[in-house]
């Protein structure tokens, strides 16, 4: 077997994490409890797929000499670049079926290498997909581009991973697009600086991926979206370089950054970006507050968000979410509240937020409100470690016959209550219809704004007990489409930070944004990528080449699922 051309520690090719990582004994126990609660297959052993078991068509392209040293056709590279990390991706990896792998995976060392890949692709009619960490959960990196391309080249940015310059005076840093979260933080640390952008996928996702998808970090307010941290962007398009000017702000017409941020690999490669960095926080204060009902908890969060306090964390966990995260008693809603600063103590901020919480019926144990370094103790600490470990559970839930997925939206406060109730109701009903059994639906807020929250829904539903992953995928698809439709119908956004990709177009993005805007975006794309090479089917159709949104929600479910056997639901 050919060797990978990558330089990083080997990833688990069939799931989340590094190949040599496992769950702790305590985590395994918790996992078994979760599987039993949802009615999965109990102790189903995971039989990890071996690379040689994957059914893949052979590469349709051979790299020219110029690219030979940076291009791979190794099975490990083709499989790890065939999917992102959504539930559907994990199922399809378990199925050992990869009908649309990239024909080639390129590992450029420089912008010149990327240009050479683009020239080669243009010459032979191949599609090109920028690949950061591959943590997309919406089909953003999937090489399912339709039949009008001769082949697909996935371009992995992992060698462009350096922090090139630090401007201490302006507190900004120039960082390459392929840098993973831990890589860039490690390089900033000696300067006493941090980007402080911590999505749950931080360990395995990249700066270029964050910018391309408008990622949201785990802080609830203020500087947490990558949009606000970007000072300028350099993008290499098929037509050449487009680079915005470094400025703290500007009123000079429509901003070039606004076109590049969120472009999801459809316009070009984000090769580097000046980003706003911050001093590392040293002051902290936190509290965990219980509320008798969701309405009171959301009222308190609204008051806090409108008081100008800007907590770093203000996670509202509804009663189901709290229990699923190992905190709460199943009746109360919880708010995990935290403040951080590199400049000043935060006791006054915490006190005022607690006053607002008390006004809405919130209560807390005195021991659960901390300032200083103790802030990681208590429910906040438990929640944080659960948050970072949660993705590892998905590797085992899928083979155990549990459908587990999440989706996020945002809605203004005036519509939140109705939205929360209706989304849960429609999702519960979709789960019953798809699986014949009740599922579990929970919600938390990931981000809050003065004008509304970003609710993040998690659902667990029964897959199949006999390991029939094809039926499980069909059930998931029905539920996912219902979720896309519910949040869009009810006036929310189909995604708050997971991006659009291919999976959020049906029933969602295509209905959400104005038709004229999509036409204007298509025009911009036509200028930057006239041959329609870049990530076809993501965000918009590529009519020139016949590419429409492919992926698991449109057209390429591997086989038509057989209806579940009687009594098997
Ligand atoms: C367990 C889990 C937790 C997650 N938590 C969060 C979260 O907290 N917040 C959040 O926002 N998202 C989250 N995500 C989603 C995902 O991590 C983000 O969308 C992330 O920004 C993707 O970064 P990446 O480097 O992995 O990009 P990839 O998955 O490789 O690519 C994503 C998209 O960006 C494009 N792209 C990637 N790199 C470049 C580049 N250099 N230039 C141009 N285009 C590029 C790709 O073509 C693709 O369309 C999570 C995903 C998982 C699996």
Concise description?
With 569 residues, the protein is α+β, with helices and mostly antiparallel strands.
Description:
The chain is α+β, with helices and mostly antiparallel strands and 569 residues long. The chain folds into 4 domains: 28-158, Uridine Diphospho-n-acetylenolpyruvylglucosamine Reductase, domain 2 (2-Layer Sandwich); 163-279, Uridine Diphospho-n-acetylenolpyruvylglucosamine Reductase, domain 3 (2-Layer Sandwich), CATH 3.30.465; 283-381, Alpha-Beta Plaits (2-Layer Sandwich); 392-510, GMP Synthetase, Chain A, domain 3. 32% of the residues lie in helices and 18% in strands. It contains 16 helices and 18 strands. It has helices at residues 25-38, 75-80, 87-94, 111-124, 181-188, 207-213, 226-229, 256-260, 294-306, 319-324, 347-359, 378-397, 413-435, 469-489, 505-512, 515-528, and strands at 71-72, 104-106, 126-131, 151-156, 163-167, 172-176, 193-194, 230-237, 240-243, 269-276, 278-279, 283-291, 313-317, 333-341, 369-371, 402-408, 440-449, 452-462. The strands form 5 sheets. A 5-stranded antiparallel sheet has the order 5-6-10-8-9. Strands 1-2-4-3 form a 4-stranded mixed sheet, with helices on one face. A hairpin with a 2-residue loop joins strand 8 (230-237) and strand 9 (240-243). The chain is globular. It starts with 24 loop residues before the first helix and ends in a 41-residue tail after the last helix. Mean pLDDT is 91; it is low at 556-569. Bound molecules: flavin-adenine dinucleotide (FAD). Flavin-adenine dinucleotide binds at residues 84-85, 129-137, 140-141, 157, 177, 199-201, 205-206, 208-210, 212-213, 215-216, 218, 264-265, 269-270, 391, 497-499, 535, 538.
């Amino acid at each position: 077997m050919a060797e990978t051309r990558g330089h990083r520690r080997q990833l688990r090719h069939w799931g989340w994490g590094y190949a040599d990582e496992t769950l702790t004994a305590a985590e395994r126990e918790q996992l078994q409890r979760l599987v039993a609660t949802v009615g999965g297959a109990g102790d189903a052993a995971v039989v990890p797929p071996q690379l040689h078991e994957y059914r893949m068509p052979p590469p349709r392209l051979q790299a020219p000499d110029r690219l030979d040293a940076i291009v791979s056709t190794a099975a490990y590279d083709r499989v790890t670049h065939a999917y992102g990390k959504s539930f559907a991706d994990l199922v399809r990896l378990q199925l050992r079926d990869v009908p649309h792998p990239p024909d080639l995976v390129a590992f450029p060392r420089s912008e010149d290498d990327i240009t050479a890949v683009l020239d080669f692709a243009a010459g032979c009619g191949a599609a090109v997909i920028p690949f950061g960490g591959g943590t997309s959960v919406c089909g953003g990196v999937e090489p399912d581009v339709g039949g009008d391309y001769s082949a697909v080249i996935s371009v992995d940015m992992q060698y462009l991973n350096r922090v090139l310059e630090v401007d201490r005076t302006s507190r900004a840093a120039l960082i390459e697009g392929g840098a993973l979260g831990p890589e860039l933080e490690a390089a900033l640390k000696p300067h006493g600086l941090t980007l402080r952008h911590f999505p749950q996928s931080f360990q395995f996702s990249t700066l270029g991926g964050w910018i391309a998808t408008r990622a949201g970090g785990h802080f609830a307010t203020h500087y947490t979206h990558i949009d606000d941290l970007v000072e300028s962007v350099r993008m290499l398009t098929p037509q050449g370089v487009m680079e915005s000017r470094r400025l703290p702000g500007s009123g000079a017409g429509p901003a070039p950054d606004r076109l590049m941020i969120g472009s999801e690999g459809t316009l070009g490669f984000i090769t580097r970006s000046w980003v706003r960095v911050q001093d590392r926080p040293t002051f902290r204060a936190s509290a965990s507050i219980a509320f008798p009902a969701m309405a009171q908890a959301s009222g308190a969060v609204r008051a806090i968000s409108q008081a100008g306090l800007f907590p770093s964390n203000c996670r509202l966990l509804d009663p189901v979410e709290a229990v699923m995260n190992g905190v709460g008693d199943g009746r109360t809603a919880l708010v995990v509240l935290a403040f951080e600063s590199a400049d000043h103590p935060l006791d006054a901020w915490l006190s005022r937020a607690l006053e607002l919480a008390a006004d809405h019926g919130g209560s807390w144990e005195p021991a659960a409100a901390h300032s200083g370094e103790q802030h990681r103790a208590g429910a906040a600490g438990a929640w944080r470690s659960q948050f970072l470990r949660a993705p590892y559970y998905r590797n085992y839930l899928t083979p155990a016959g549990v459908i587990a997925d999440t989706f996020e939206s945002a809605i203004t406060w005036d519509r939140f209550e109705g939205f929360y109730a209706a989304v849960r109701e429609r999702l519960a009903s979709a789960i019953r219809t798809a699986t014949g059994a009740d599922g579990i639906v929970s919600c938390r807020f990931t981000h809050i704004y003065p004008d509304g929250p970003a609710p993040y829904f998690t659902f667990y539903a029964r897959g199949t007990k006999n390991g029939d992953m094809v039926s499980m995928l069909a059930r998931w698809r029905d539920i996912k489409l219902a979720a896309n439709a519910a949040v869009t119908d009810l006036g929310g956004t189909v995604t708050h930070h997971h991006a659009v990709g291919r999976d959020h177009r049906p029933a969602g993005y295509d209905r959400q944004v104005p038709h004229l805007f999509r036409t204007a975006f298509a025009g911009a794309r036509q200028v930057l990528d006239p041959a329609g090479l870049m990530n076809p089917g993501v965000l918009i159709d590529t009519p020139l080449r016949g590419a429409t949104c492919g992926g698991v929600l449109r057209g390429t479910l591997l086989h038509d699922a057989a209806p579940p056997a009687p009594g098997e639901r």
